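User: I'm putting together a small comparison set for a docking exercise, and I want a reference complex before I start. The sequence is below, and the ligand is zinc ion. Could you produce the 3D structure with the ligand included, as structure tokens?
Assistant: Of course. I'll restate your input first, then give the structure tokens for the complex.
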Amino acid sequence: MGNPDSSSAPGRSFAGLFDPHVHTELAGCAEDITAAAAFARARAMGLAIGFSEHADQLYFPREDYARYEAEAGKLSALGAAARAGHSRFAAYRALVAPLAAQGVPAGLEVEAAEDSPGLALLDEDRGGWDHLLGAVHEFRQGQRPGANLARDFMVQVGKLCSGGVDVLSHPFRVFIRKGREVPKELYRPVAEMLAAHGVAAEINFHTNRPDPEFFALCLELGARLSVGSDAHAMWEVGALGPHLALLRQIGAMERLEEVLWRPCLKR
Ligand SMILES: [Zn+2]
Ligand SMILES: [Zn+2]
């Protein structure tokens, strides 16, 4: 797959941008990306990045993740996987530690737990991260006839916000990926919830079509924004052309300092 835009062309300025949403070779869905190569590429481009690996995937063997996927939102299943010795959190911490020593923030992309009010993340794996991205990847009751997907989505976003995530990854993408219409009537309640909890909304084009209207509303209501390449492949590192265009479209380019979220390094 080639790079479809020119954002990685030499000379493009990434000043003021920070992309915390880069995956590593430990993701089950990783293509050719590695943490070391992504860091080297971003540094050569003058782009600040951070890593955010899929927390649910780290509980299970990489090659076998599909077998566990249906259960991965349940804290009980994560606990059982950890007790069975499948957890790869130690491997992820070891992978990012040398990069963290060079100033690269590291965190997780977490989901809402299906069987508890909080995050799908065991207490023992919660500490030591610079940031948490929260994501809705599946509707929990989505396959049931008559399921209220809007409600399902709001419940998950609520759990993520009260669970302490810093950024909501690819808001509303789950509707697009599942072939559903994006419920625009949720733009305001989601933006209000993000603003109330100090959670940033992520502009993310990875298999996604983010709506500028939602991000403009976030700014109006006082929620910050974040840019995420969601890179699973090397060509995606620094592929932020569409993100910059969206920021320009909503009039945010002149005030990136003010509108973009950044991690406060916690370690
Ligand atoms: Zn995601
Ligand atoms: Zn991701």
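Residues 109, 135, 137, 169-170 surround zinc ion (ligand 1) (CB under 6 Å). The longest helix spans residues 149-162.
User: Thanks, that's exactly what I needed.
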